[in-house]
Amino acid sequence: MFTVLFKKIKKVLCVIVYQTLLQATKKMLLNIKNIIIDQIYFHNQLQIFYQFNQIQINKMNQRVINLKDNSKGARLKSILGIIFYFYCSYILCTSLLGYLLYQTIVHKSIGSLAIIIVVCTYQYGFAKKSETLISFFRYMNLPNYFNEWTCTLEEPVKESKALLSYHPHCIFNFTFMWNGVHNCYNHIFLASRMLINVPFLGIAVTLMGVQSVDPGNMARLMKQGKNIGVLPGAFEEACLTSQYEHRIYIKHRKGFIKYALKYGYTIYPCYSFGENQVYWTFTHFLKFRMILAKMKLLSVLFGSRFGIAPHYDVSMHSVVGKGIECPQIENPSKEDVEKYHKIYVDAIVNLFNKYKKQFNQENQELVLY
Membrane-spanning residues where (predicted)? Predict the structure, then answer.
């Protein structure tokens, strides 16, 4: 009798435990679901916040986006982001590649060679833009590292067929990358194929959404009407970087004008004040270094009190000028290209002169190369 009673009690207890566990599991899954939904909602709201809520209309009817965050812990978060961005991405990737090449060449290490092959296979065949990594950098809010960071738009950028042309290139062109991370202009940013093809480092660049500026890829994107961002000055403009003078390399850069005419794009001249102040740069032997730059070889020497990380006591202000409407011409002539190139050069010079006093550069002139 006691055995039967014990079995019944045991059965009842098992049912109670089962029901309790079932309810707890359902509750846990529901909580997980709510957390995921909340995170997705938060992420979407964060994007909306950066794209719209921080936009202020000034007296000149210009849209000014302020990416500075004065909340508690924001500066520390941005410093940690800078450390990760430069020392974990650039330095680690470069050092690891150097070590593996050394082991492969000097010690004939098969394992090191295998790692290089696997990483390069992923980089050239499978790596693509990572929204997770971009969201991480957006969360770290790297612009908060600097004294100030604003983006001024003289007019809204078109939703399609917009080409944003950035100056000056300087060393890393922070405004080119980080304004893109924060979706200030809603564009795909293009960079040198050489940068993307550097083993290991190219993975980080690709994950950030950067694509190659080679003619084939540029034509493919423009056929689709995608908004793109380019750095016309390229290596030569980086070589010209000086903390004492504003310099851009534009006199012989006309390829992007030809593409804009061929596909009927609107070109938005962009200039970033403060970009040339984030590093100390070596400015001597310019002619020799320009020869190296034309060969796509290392031609810049730079640094800061923090090594590769930039100076923090700099105010960064990027300005996007009014668009230059280019008529669609299937085969633009040399005269067409020259005409719109002159219009563009005049526009970038006027943009610099218009804002230099506002951003404490009234004694400076824009030097064209």
Answer: 79-102, 108-127
